[in-house]
Design a protein that fits this description.
The protein contains 6 helices and 4 strands. It is an alpha+beta fold. A hairpin with a 2-residue loop joins strand 3 (105-107) and strand 4. Helix 2 (11-21) runs parallel beside helix 3. Among the domains are: 4-49; 86-132, no CATH class.
Length: 143
């Protein structure tokens, strides 16, 4: 429920309150009064209560990038790797190491968006990155 104070503000006053709470950023186009007021209430609550965890914020940032780049968001209940984690895989006698970053992965001093891109670079063929690095079972594996 929107607080009574916000319900009485004009659209211009709501946008001004948004700018104040969002360090001068402009209200996104297409947001109606109700959504602007709800976002203001959420922002105030987040300041008091602590807001989103860094992990949730990273996930939302990744979704935003994916939406802009592909026009879609792929939701998965997949594995969550913490930044700083090192993945190690031996392939044809060579050992490969990948570092998990806040957004993506570091392999051979280069940034990659996905493990699948790295698996393809290592093997030269189409592999599931999570499967290649042992994070996901093979489809024919039986429990």
């Amino acid at each position: 429920m929107i607080d009574e104070h916000l319900a009485k503000l004009s659209a211009g006053q709501l946008r001004a309150e948004w700018r104040r709470l969002h360090k001068g950023t402009v209200t996104p186009k297409g947001l109606g009064r109700d959504l602007i007021a709800r976002a203001i209430v959420w922002r105030k609550q987040a300041r008091m209560e602590g807001g989103l965890t860094p992990a949730i914020q990273r996930t939302l940032d990744r979704f935003a990038i994916e939406l802009v780049e592909t026009g879609d968001i792929k939701l998965s209940a997949g594995l969550s790797l913490k930044p700083g984690t090192r993945l190690v895989r031996q392939w044809h006698g060579d050992i490969y190491q990948v570092q998990v970053l806040d957004q993506g992965f570091k392999f051979e001093e280069r940034h990659f968006r996905s493990l699948t891109q790295i698996a393809r670079k290592i093997t030269g063929t189409a592999w599931s990155g999570p499967r290649f690095f042992g994070l996901k079972a093979s489809p024919d594996a039986r429990n």
